[in-house]
Write a structure and sequence with these properties.
With about 70 residues, the protein is mainly α. About 55% of the residues lie in helices and about 0% in strands. The chain has one domain. It is built from three helices and no strands.
Length: about 70
């Protein structure tokens, strides 16, 4: 049962990481400084995947069978 919760949660965090900067990079390779947050990071095309994963994560977390186990 824990795996049923773990994979959607991991999918959410990974998808959120790549949805924040469009390039998929968190740091500038030349300066090794964090890249600034881009406009529209909450609504861009890549932001749809984290929403789907989060929905499945919530469904799994709130499932009565999972909570009993």
């Amino acid at each position: 049962m824990d795996i049923a919760r773990k994979f959607p949660q991991m999918g959410y965090t990974r998808a959120r990481r790549y949805a924040n900067p469009r390039s998929g990079r968190k740091y500038d390779p030349a300066t090794r400084q964090p890249l600034p947050q881009e406009d529209g990071w909450e609504t861009n095309e890549k932001a749809q995947a984290p929403r789907i994963f989060y929905g499945y994560y919530c469904r799994t977390r709130d499932d009565p069978d999972y909570q009993r186990a």
